[in-house]
Fold this protein.
Amino acid sequence: MTYRIAIDVGGTFTDLALLGPDGVELDHKTGSTPHDPAEGVVAGLTALAGRAGLSLTDLLRRTGTIVHGTTVTTNALVTGTGARTGLLTTEGLRDVLLARQGHRAGQFDSRSSPAPPLVPRHLIETVRERVDSTGAVATPLDEQSVRSAARRLRGAGVESVAVSFAFSYLNDAHERRTAEILAAELPDVPLSLSSRVAPEVRLFERTSTTVLNAYVDPVLRDHLGRLARRLEALGHTGRVLIVQSNGGVVGLADAAGRAVHTLLSGPAGAPAAVADVVAELGVAEAMTIDMGGTSFEVSLSSGGVTGITTHAEPAGHPVSVPMLDIGTIGAGGGSVAWVSAGGLLRVGPASAGADPGPACYGRGGEAVTVTDADLLLGYLAGGFGDGIAASRDAAGRAVDDLARRLGIGRIEAAAGVHRAVNAEMADSLRLATARHGLDPRRLALVAAGGAGPVHAVELARDLEIPLVVVPPGASVLCARGMLRADLVRYYVHTLLGRGNGPGDAGIDVLEVGAAFAALEDRARADLSAGAAAATGIRLNRLADVRYVGQVHEVTVPFPEAPVVEVVDGPVVDGTVVDGLIERFHRLHDRLYGFAQPEVPVEVVNLRLEARVPTVGPSRLRGPAAAFPAGPAGVRRAWFDGAFLDVPVRNVGSVPVDERQEGPVLLAAPGTTVVVPPGYAFEVTGSGTTLVFGADRERAEVLAGLSGELAEAVR
């Protein structure tokens, strides 16, 4: 077995994890380099190689696979630095992006405005063609209009082109021919076709998804190209896999044309690591938070499985591709504190990022960040990650300026920043649980990211969550999860069938079976072409189901073994469709508090998840040798409105499975587990830290966690 490396490039830090031939893992954290992310990657790899006792060239030559999670597409979208994009659409539909769905997102805000389209109207061209709602050609493609549009877009200097025609998900012949013409007219311009990017019903969402793909695709191509060339020059000849928003990975060639699938590339690595942690504890349901330097992510999982959504709006732009159901807000260690026009203290979403970073880094940053406040409150030591020092004096000067504007003292201002960011994060946790109709008091809170364990217990106290779980290597948990990410591809087939429930024949089981058979053939061909063994492919079949008259669907897994092999080909057994509809009624009741078995049901889309493991089954272990966790001793820390002399202990020195009580600051690699008064903690044999109320016992807490989320995410 060769080495395997995972690289998670964030807005502030770049995290790396190395899995050696002997199964031993090394982790490392270094500062990101926004001007050229590859520079920070190489710096981290160099340090990681040194800790493994190898030169960088030797390490890369012996590395079979590099798994890369990146925020370059997200950053391009958020900052508006994507490609100059043009759009070709069907004649008469030029304003599809402006019209959206015809309703206001903020129903009760008269000033609410949607995000401006990524393609300005003067770069939207229409083409004479029409496919009708059955997939038949109503108006043949006017190829001359395509050529004329291409020439106008070329004159406008577009760097990427999206093509989205009406009903192309039923018949993509016009889009394919348009792509051939555009390739000749615009040979160096990347193309995004809606029939490839999002081949499903709903023109606006399909067009928005395709445009977003076109907008960030050149940015991702440039980043991946530079990174691949840099790695090759340093001696790496193995494969490079890119993490998708669904938590799986694909090869470089696939990622380059599917940029929209990487919008959650970084945060999507954590669920794979969390699955091992909760399985070890026997915890069925968990809520994971990942608080890094720039953002705060929250997700829910059952049995280690995190839910998938096909309805997301990153930066206000709807996308309809499968993504892990992860909520994100701008609340990280680098989030900037500011005073509103009304004199209120606010935190985020703006971040100091990696350059200049928080004021305490001493790199020219002057704005107060969460990290500066946490440092002054005693929760953090004097350094972060790869040689990044932290100055209390610099943090104090920045906080003093904020305190003067608020008319309060330094510590009051720092405590206010800490409380304000906690309030923002607690609200996002409430929203996440409310969306699934869940009671947070029945969930465990898994804390990840460099800042997550610092704030986790206070968040748990606010929401009455009974258990906080801090995995080993929590500050680089996404990178650790990426080490074990599977190859994953999703496929979709739109199918508008109607049924009234069990025994109803309105849903054509033969059509469903034939559709799944076609999707499975594509999946085997795609994944086998990627050097994966076709026999190792795991297929999961799902359907988007709704009551007739509803606008949105619920994605429901088919019961086991939905496809029955017969002489004439695979079909779906009718009893399986009955089971699907019954599952939909139960899940709808679970999510929304009611079900209507008497109302007809529509199956809108069939979905197929194809998954191939990239490594053998293994349990995540704590890193054998990590970067220093910080000094032990005693430090003054702020709890309940006063400073206390609090012991600081290295988490690696805590006796295994021995219950102890706070307050205590547990120094761990890249983070600190803050255990306030009134809480107890234990460290398991695998290095996982558990924090719970001092009036409870560990066994009692674990036994009290329910399994109510299982039906909602499976």
